[in-house]
Amino acid sequence: MSKKKLIRFRANKEFERLFEPSALDLIERDHELKGRWNSDFFKNSNDLVLELGCGRGEYTIGLARLNPDKNYIGVDIKGSRLFFGARVIEAERIHNACLVRSQIELVPAIFAREVNQIWLTFPDPRPDRVRRRLTAPNFLNRYRKILADDGTICLKTDSRELYEFTLELAGKNNLEVLESTSDLYDSPLKDRMPQIQTQYEEKFLAAGKKICFLQFRLDRDVAPLKPKSRS
User: Fold this and answer.
1) Do 212 and 181 touch, CB atoms closer than 8 A?
2) Are 135 and 165 contacting, i.e. CB atoms less than 8 angstroms apart?
């Protein structure tokens, strides 16, 4: 492990708005703030929004700046990345945002049905490991356990394959699709989206890639897609 990473890991322990529960603890018992993030941590009853796989927390922090009347939590397993976001949150004293270091598989142990919206911003499309996609059925069924009634999921991606996979999954499972476009910046949705671009998105746009966006609602178990028959 590099010296810089070790320094960041040590610094992470001092940030008041960065939580690092151990995986073993979460397997044995729920997080102490589960079901009480708003009441006990944010001290309000505002909507709670998660970004899963948040990296450095750019989108989480951007949303928190734009919407001080909502609470935002970014989740990622990479502590060396979260360091940068935690440092910004502390420096700017952003009261409505925090970060959690954890595997996304464990979010049902961290949150109850208290989350109003989940953002998946440019997740790894996992072309060879469909089950590991953050919109695969096994993940969506975890999200059902933490989304409040009428909670929604927003997917923003440069991967047309991931976008179409998720859209097909929503259709096969009769999930309500609220918004959908395979070219965000050439659609009416552009002006209604948060004006935030992460470093990844800026690189994708500079390379001429189109950005896809999908917003849908989960209200039932999601079954896997059946393999397409071969001719």
Assistant:
1) yes
2) yes
For the chain, report the end-to-end CA distance as a whole number of angstroms: 49
- DSSP state, residue 136: S
The model carries a pTM of: 0.93
Counting other chains too, the contacts that 131-136 makes at CB distance below 8 Å and 24 or more residues apart are 133/162, 133/165, 133/166, 134/52, 134/53, 134/104, 135/162, 135/165, 135/166, 135/169, 136/224
111: helix, coil or strand?
Answer: coil
Spatial strand order of the sheet with 115-121 comes to: 18-19, 97-101, 71-76, 48-52, 115-121, 147-157, 212-217, 176-181
Reading the block at residue 149, the tokens are 């009634």
Which amino acid is present at 112? A
User: Which residue numbers are catalytic?
Assistant: 124
Reported as a single tens digit per residue, the pLDDT across 40-77 is: 999 999 999 999 999 999 999 999 999 999 999 999 99
Tell me if 222 sits within 8 A of 175, measured CB to CB.
Answer: yes
Q: Which domains does the chain have, with CATH numbers?
A: 7-217 (3.40.50.150)
Q: What is d(CA 33, CA 36) in angstroms, rounded to the nearest whole number?
A: 5
CB 77 within 8 A of CB 103: yes
